[in-house]
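User: Structure tokens for this complex, please. No commentary.
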Amino acid sequence: MTYTDSKGRIDSDGMIERGPEIDIIVDGRPLHAFEGESVAAALLAAKRPRMLRLTARRGDLRGLYCGIGLCFDCVMTIDGQPGVRVCQTEVRPGMRIESQSGNGTWEFKG
Amino acid sequence: MTRTQLPLVVIGGGPAGMAAAVEAARAGLSCTLIDEARSVGGQVYRPFPAAFRVTDAKSLGQEYAEGERLRAELRDVDDRLEIRSGTAVPGVWNGGRDILLPGNDGRTASTIHAERLVIATGAYERPVPFPGWTLPGVMAAGGAHGLLRTMRVRPGRRALVAGTGPLIYRLAQRLHAAGVELAAVLDAASPLSSAAETLDSDLAESDFRNCQETLRRAGVPILFHHTIFEARARRDDAVEQALYGPVDPDDWHPNKIIRVQNVDVDLVCIGFGFVPDTVLTTLVGCRHEYIEAAGGWVPTRDANMQTTIPGVFAVGDGAWVAGALAAEAEGRIAGITVAEQAGALSAIEAETRRRAPRERLAALFAGSASGACIGRPLFRPGLIELVTPETIICRCEEVVLEEIGVALDEGARDLQAVKLRTRLGMGPLPVCPQGAAGRGLELAAGGCDERIKLTSACWPLTLDYSPDPTFPVEVAKMQQPLTIGRAAREAGVNIETVRFYERRGLIEQPPKGDGYRVYSADQVARIRFIKEAQQIGFTLSEIGELLTLRADPSADCSEVRQQAVAKLDEVHRKIEQLQRVGAALETLIAACPRHGALQECSIMDALTVRSGLRTGEEKSRRSRPRIISQRSIR
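Assistant:
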């Protein structure tokens, strides 16, 4: 199942053209995104839950808060690396993004 | 290993950092510019992602043009400039000479050495905690703005915007233009002060009025002296409902008793101004001072933007929140001065080059209507009352207010001690030693619990990142402003009582300081005196006389004694009167048959006869059963 996407994107206003369309994988499901977008923007634009992670101590839901890389509330596990701020990370084709619980776990390759 | 000394390292690629690098490089100095973002510009001049194509630059507005102009200036000096983008600086030591940089692999780090350092790390949005502020869907206004502007993505469908200052209107207008429905714009300030408290010099007053006008025409409710009280999620994973209501016009103390409204929204944007990011200037060891108008704790600087450490400069919103244009002017002054210190410019030439940015800065601070109010505080102490004991104060470490109270109960007497017990402000990553948004909130709280009253004591000294973690709680308490809410609490009365005493002329209303009235300890004592005297039985006019006597140096105690004796006589008379009443009631009760219809009630009959009240059988018959039915319900 693909998330219903593009709902959150502002239609082209004649001033800006987005980059080429690419596919990323969010919690195991494919999602369309546009090159140049931050992971946060791609996730918000899609009709998917706005929760990005569960906190370590209380298990509370958190989403995007400051949007400028300061608050670390938007951290997710990207390509096996936990604790990555999605507001500061650009999408790449095939990128795997997973909601994170607590501090997440490292996935070591090789 | 050879130690390479770089002539100049600039940390931060916003307008201040870019301008500093441009000026130093123009004078012939090699310069390294380190920026956390992928491309320079900072928050205000953030460029579009490289993969996006700008098809109509002219329509993108002045901000975009200013950013492009600065980037073009940087390109002109690129032979003397190294830009390290996507690099966050985790630490600076040795008086600003050693700068730690993470490696590209994300696992290693290296140190670079600089002869001179310009710190231009900008500001972050002032975190204002309220119940539910950590829910997904509650966003800082700047973050929502960035998504709309740079990413062209709507952060929600139906929004509530709360805060103050012109930027919330600009955000609201952008949300509206993007097709996001707006439930309301809540401005804690009054219409007048909100217009005057133009934080960002980039936003001309006319622009601000246009935003408001557009919103009004679109039918968006703009409520002054209102703010958000709570964000709630009912079933979903994110905010679904917001509660809001009026705040005190003076100190923005929320009035949670009357008129709390609720709206269904999936986005709440909060904007209460900015706090300078002083982590690096603190790490280097610069001296700081608390300046409310500057946004909080700021490094002490000379006219050329040099901190108390020679060769270390601080510029832009990280040193004094004043907006992008002021940041650029400060950056230029610092860049020129660095070149002068390095011997690349003569003193005369440096002074000549500094003239234009200095004039610019002076004009921004003093000249224009908006500039005159740069950096006026967009936060008032009453907002702290939004917090409940269960509200999370430190987002990173998930510390709630109650836990801070427990730490204080257990003997923590300074910030450091509270931090060690609760992890308050620790933050998850070494890059972020004070816990980012959480760091702004170290001990913001109060009012909801006597036990944790001490907590609120630390505002304003610790609301922002405090360079002195050993600042004692008691000292902070003495320095807190006595707003009407605090004064009332200290005196043990409610706010309305204070206002009533003011209207009766029993206490003088203090003048407005930074927009809100600050009471003196004497006035609190006076309020307490009035309350005590009232409890003893003195009327307000008698209390007025007592207060006059108290203030009159020629008055002697015999006058007070006279008044007290008169009062005592009155009390005796009242006791006598009440004793007569008691005896009469005893007689009536003794005569009561204890049962039967009300018409036969001996007590009612006796009272009716005594009062001469007999206004027709009909009326008394109708009214009596009603009394019975009302009583039987209880």
